[in-house]
Amino acid sequence: NKPFSMRLFYIVISSLALSLGSAVGMHCQSLSLARELTNKSKFKQPLWVIGTLILIMDAVGDFIFIGFVPQSILAPLGALSLCWNTILSPCFRDAERTSPIAIFAVILIYGGTLFTISFAGNASPDYSLEDIDGFFRQDSFRIYATCCAIFLLLIALHGYYCNKNRGYGMYHSCGMAGCLGAQSLLFAKITSELVRHAVIDGKAEYWKTSLLPYLFVLTFVVLLMIQSKLLEWGMVGEDPLVMIPIYQSVWNIFGSIGGFLFFQEFQFMNLPLDVIMYTLGFIITLLGIAVLVKQQVFHNQHGTSGIRVDLDELEMASLHDDSIISCGGGISITTSESQFSASVPDDPDEPPSLPASRGVTV
User: pLDDT for 202-248, tens place per residue?
Assistant: First the structure.
């Protein structure tokens, strides 16, 4: 249980590889969809297919990884995907630039995560079905489940009564999706434990004599679907680079608490020093996420919204002279021989569009 043991080293390396795979897969899909301007099926886009295969392999690796690592370590490690997104964005998007503040946020997140898991109890015992059933009967789990239910209820009531004019917003979706995502992590770990016992240890009797394993799998799938739907609703009209870190913060908090209270993982820590240092590292990670969100919000409010499209020869012929086109509403289009960019004010009355006479379709 030393802070920098070989076990911890393997956990960090595996997590970095898996979070990198997830970020690369998502960026490949996004880039493919951005490049494809026709109605061509996604499955006929090579880059999108490559991204999907990477995500599938990464998901399998995640499922195996979950069974060998304590949940109180898994939750903070989830923040590493945010860092990879920040690092890789300039590689996949020409217009993206990583600011010094974003780099500082990445350093905080990496440093806080490493600090957190260094003082977490990195022992992960094998849990039988009887052990898991006993965990559900503990008072600590009842307290945790009650707190989660109250949190979800308060967010639902706030969105319904206190936010009537706008309805449920980004923060409501992030809060509910993050809380339910932490529960899906808990059931994913339970399922991974039981599958590992059946495949590796040959102990498949649980799946033959009890319905509980199937109930755990069903609960995991349902929670995952609800979480994904909430994120999908929340992303409508919102910046994912702002929303995802907020969701990740809530997910980290409830995921760590769930590991401590459900699996009793605090028993493998040196109290109270490890708990204090774990909390300190957790706060550093959340601070890094907050800096990342604030940087993106500032960029959205004060930066220039732009569209950049490569033009084919036919379109280039109609845009052979550099010019500035006013589209009304404070929106202007700057054209050149090879590209155009759209400058949009903070609150345009109308969406940007190009005059049809220019022969350019956006």
Answer: 778 888 888 999 999 999 999 988 988 887 777 666 666 777 788 88
* Predicted confidence (pLDDT) per residue in 69-84, tens digit: 888 888 888 788 778 8
Phi then psi for 328, rounded to 5 degrees? 85, 160
Residue whose C-alpha is closest to residue 243's, from 293, 285, 301, 299: 293
**Separation between Cα atoms, residue 362 and residue 351, nearest integer Å:** 12
- Indicate the pTM of the whole model: 0.71
Could you give the C-alpha distances from 269 to 109, 129, 265, 337, in angstroms and in order? 22, 24, 7, 64
Which is more confident, 331 or 14? 14
CB 200 within 8 A of CB 68: no
* HSE toward the beta carbon, residue 183, CA cutoff 13 A: 25
Largest Cα–Cα distance in the chain? Answer: 76
CA–CA gap between residue 78 and residue 248 (Å, rounded): 7
Under a CB-based contact definition with an 8 Å cutoff, are residues 176 and 155 in contact?
Answer: yes
Mean pLDDT of all residues in 321-328? 44
Task: Tell me: pLDDT of 119 over 60.
Answer: yes
Tokens of 147: 């707190």
Q: How far is CA 83 from CA 52, 142, 245, 303, in A?
A: 21, 34, 10, 21
pLDDT tens digits, one per residue of 13-53: 888 888 888 888 877 877 777 666 556 777 778 888 888 88
Q: How far is CA 78 from the centre of its chain?
A: 8
Spatial contact of 79 and 130, defined as CB atoms under 8 Å apart: no
Question: Cis peptide before 345, with omega less than 30 degrees from 0?
Answer: no
CA Rg value for the chain: 24
Phi, psi (5° rounding) for residue 25? -60, -45
| Strand ranges across the sheet with 323-328 | 323-328, 331-335, 340-343
Burial of 358 (0-12, 13-18, 19+ CB in 10 A): middle
At 344 the three-state DSSP class reads: strand
